[in-house]
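Below is how a single chain appears once it has passed through the pipeline. First comes the sequence as given, then the structure the pipeline wrote out for it. We keep one example in the README because the format questions we get most often are answered faster by looking than by reading.
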Amino acid sequence: MADAETFAFQAEINQLLSLIINTFYSNKEIFLREIISNSSDALDKIRFESLTDKSKLDGQPELFIRLVPDKANKTLSIIDSGIGMTKADSKKKKKIKEVSHEWELINKQKPIWLRKPEEITKDEYASFYKSLTNDWEDHLAVKHFSVEGQLEFKAILFVPKRAPFDLFDTRKKMNNIKLYVRRVFIMDNCEELIPEWLGFVKGVVDSDDLPLNISRETLQQNKILKVIRKNLVKKCIEMFNEIAENKEDYNKFYDAFSKNLKLGIHEDSQNRAKLSDLLRYHSTKSGDELTSLKDYVTRMKEGQKDIYYITGESKKAVENSPFLERLKKKGYEVLFMVDAIDEYAVGQLKEYDGKKLVSATKEGLKLDDETEEEKKKKEEKKKSFEDLCKTIKDILGDKVEKVVVSDRIVDSPCCLVTGEYGWTANMERIMKAQALRDSSMGSYMSSKKTMEINPENGIMEELRKRAEADKNDKSVKDLVLLLFETALLTSGFSLDDPNTFAARIHRMLKLGLSIDEEETVGDDVDMPALEEDGAEESKMEEVD
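Resulting structure:
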């Protein structure tokens, strides 16, 4: 190996090292990776040259990279046997004649985000939006602003008219916000710049304060990005509120991006209250129009303390739900939350304007507007139906946690409610549809159901009389099971065994039509019978 010569840096070492440490890389450990990578390149170079000139390896035939730590002197030496750092390898200086060129400036236009908003026309914004996003339609809204102070940056944000088909595709690269530093494009996939729930917003951010780096890691971990992100979220919410001033435009916006707003409520605790003002729902009093939580509060009855809502698969599925009977009769407005993500959003929102959001399908629904006479009558009814509640519980066993007299239903014979902190029927349906669901969590969160019976309903009154006459009457058991299964359906749950339910309905139809069971026994071999004793048919017919 040739004799090594030692050279000193001909530069201000402190400034150079500071530049390398603070500008090139964010993590101090990266320097070691880069130096070892350089050594590897030097080995590749000498190996390649030795293929045509064997003498290259005469001095040191072994190719190596050695890391030598010196604890005493607190140094780490990286030694390699490659080429590229010897004096012979240095390029000789060449003298050339000075050549001048004539240049023509192509980008004469000033970047649109550097101009004042009042100087820019709608057509210019539209043209810039289309060139930025490759969208063929104009944007729905634009927010052009600059932030000054300790941190300075300029930005233009756009809301498109429609949501892309792959808006929530996790495999999609997030490239909606183009990041510039001093008018130089840096990247378009900076995940730290804007939260996921604002993934539909497109635009440009230009900052003079972000350092230009060789490694993108510094940019991703820079504290300035957090400040920019906070300001972008704030300005986006301002833009959404501006859109809301025009009802027609906001209906288009909400139809396309309501899921994003609800995702923001679920994920962004700092802006949850502001985002809740942007929510819109159908309700028992809004008809075909959507209503805001703010408008709901203005229509609340005198003395009403809570905001009532019901979740379900669709508006049609919930608007005639038995859970709404008493609320409607008393004049309370109920919001219809029929988007799957509503379950997650309302779980985080919990309250609005100091008023608690209460589900009409869970335990704990209390309406404090009863007169003393009504309370007294209700207590008498509860007492008279205590024995029936025990009988129903004995028949259903572990299918329900308890059976109680209901305060929420008026016309229906019964319904099934869930625990205050457990899943609703709709949430249970959503979780069952998850391909990668946690089955252990499902059994924990899908709490046992409470069966609420309506003492004013004729079916329940007749059932009470039969149970008092003979609680072991098999027709009582049949009716209880049928009521339970129909309550599952009307309360939004799914049947574990729909075939048995269908067979039970068919049996009831035959009894109602006075069809002799023996005449159709050949057709009904697989049908589970409600009764083992045919003598009970007369009792079932009495109910019909």
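DSSP finds 19 helices and 16 strands in the chain.

See the next section for the split statistics.
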